[in-house]
Design brief:
The complex is a heterodimer of chains A (161) and B (249). By secondary structure, chain A is α/β, with parallel strands linked by helices. Chain A contains four helices and seven strands, in the order H-H-E-E-H-E-H-E-E-E-E. In chain A, strands 4-7-6-5 form a four-stranded mixed β-sheet. Chain B is mainly α. The two termini of chain B are 34 Å apart. Classes of the chains: A alpha/beta (161), B mainly alpha (249). The structure holds zinc ion.
């Protein structure tokens, strides 16, 4: 009989299709694992409403668990509580930086219009002298920055709260 | 008529149509960053639409999915406000339409997170986080263009003058809203219009733009009476499903 802990370990082998350095557990989209009589239920939550990766993540979870011999898997998508970048694990943040994506920083409320912009350190040289190019980057979850010192253009995994 | 179904269709169609309009910019943005930004916004709106129309289909109980609702209704059955179907025009026009809508949508979701209906509250909670980004983005452009060059100021002022007539419909209410508020399904929307005027006014003033004094307003979308633009949007939006029914990819 498979344990809940084991399933969590299996989920550590399912990667986010858009940021393949993170597992779905690192990303914090797995809300709950429930054991059922002859299988399990996995509750996941989307990062963004229109995130095209969610269907893929669902399929990948089915595939991975089937590979581990768990056939009856139900994946449920819930919207509340809404995902926040605070749920990205510390290991996840470290992996992001090593991959060249600046992890989310503490940001002021997005509804405050004229606040000072958040300082996002360059993932390559750690300089704090960087500039925002666009609030919207290569995917919904990222913004586009550039380092003023080493000139590296980089993605920033923007804070969502 | 099922009031909850109707309400969800209204909100879902607003995001469906503005999301589609934004997607028309794909490959045509004035700069690469904005091309990417507008398609990202579009994706958020289509995602919000999927949640809203999926729930509408469940509430209706006739087995219609979010895709059935998005692709297989006729023009009169779409209940989006007229503002969101207005043509993209130049970038300033698109940003002005977006700004007027984002300011409303943000204030609306701030109220709907307190809805007693748990699904509406959950959709609002999820969407609000995205909407805050949208509002910041469009507000910054309005300020930059309004308080920019003579030419950029003239263009966004023209856009504001053109679109202002469609803003009263943001606050259109009828028996549908009244029934849901009375039943406690959604919270009261008292003060929504005043809050919107304040929020929009602050940005327009910073942008050195003038709020039109012409009070002639155009409404109809909530009752399914649309401008000529919606038909063209639907022709493109529905083409694949009409030509190849049940097509999947
Ligand atoms: Zn650097």
């Amino acid at each position: 009989m498979v344990t809940e802990k084991q399933i969590w370990a299996y989920l550590e082998e399912v990667f986010d299709p858009e940021v393949p350095v993170l597992t779905v557990v690192d990303l914090g989209v797995v809300q709950k694992v429930e054991l059922k009589d002859d299988g399990c239920k996995i509750v996941i939550t989307p990062t963004y409403s229109g995130c095209p990766a969610m269907k893929r993540i669902e399929d990948d979870i089915h595939e991975k668990l089937a590979e581990k011999g768990i056939e009856k898997v139900e994946v449920e998508l819930v919207l509340s509580p809404a995902w926040t970048t605070d749920w990205i694990t510390e290991i996840g943040k470290k992996k992001l930086k090593e991959y060249g994506i600046a992890p989310p920083e503490d940001e002021v409320d997005k509804s405050v219009l004229f606040a000072d912009p958040t300082v996002v350190p360059c993932p390559k040289c750690d300089s704090r002298n960087t500039k925002l190019i666009s609030q919207f980057g290569s995917t919904a979850c990222k913004a586009h920055y550039q380092c003023n010192d080493c000139l590296e253009p980089f993605d920033y995994f923007k804070c969502l709260r | 008529m099922n009031a909850l179904f109707e309400y969800l269709i209204r909100l879902g169609d607003d995001s469906l149509i503005i999301g589609h309009r934004l997607s028309e910019w794909c490959g045509h943005g004035p700069v690469l960053e904005e091309d990417i930004a507008m398609t990202n916004l579009s994706l958020d709106f289509i995602g919000q639409t999927a949640s809203l129309l999926k729930y509408a289909g469940e509430v209706e109980g006739k087995g219609r999915t979010e895709d059935d609702l998005a692709y297989l209704r006729c023009d009169r059955e779409y209940k989006n406000i007229l503002l969101v179907e207005q043509p993209n025009g130049d970038f300033g026009m698109t940003m002005m339409r977006q700004f007027l809508f984002d300011a409303y949508r943000k204030l609306l979701f701030e109220r709907l997170v307190n809805a007693k209906d748990e699904t509406i509250a959950a959709i609002a909670e999820k969407s609000l986080k995205e909407t805050k980004y949208h509002f910041k983005h469009s507000s910054e452009w309005i300020i930059r263009l309004g308080d920019g060059t003579e030419e950029s100021n003239r263009r966004v002022q023209d856009s504001l003058d053109t679109l202002w007539r469609y803003t009263s419909e943001l606050f259109y209410t009828d028996a549908v809203d009244a029934e849901l508020i009375a039943a406690g399904t959604i919270p009261s929307m008292e003060g929504l219009e005043e809050d919107w005027e304040k929020s929009v006014g602050e940005v327009l003033s910073e942008a050195t733009l003038t709020i039109p004094t012409n009070n002639w307003k155009q409404e109809g979308g909530r009752k399914g009476m649309h401008s000529e633009h919606l038909g063209y949007i639907l022709a493109e939006l529905q083409y694949m499903q009409r030509a190849y029914p049940g097509l999947e990819w």
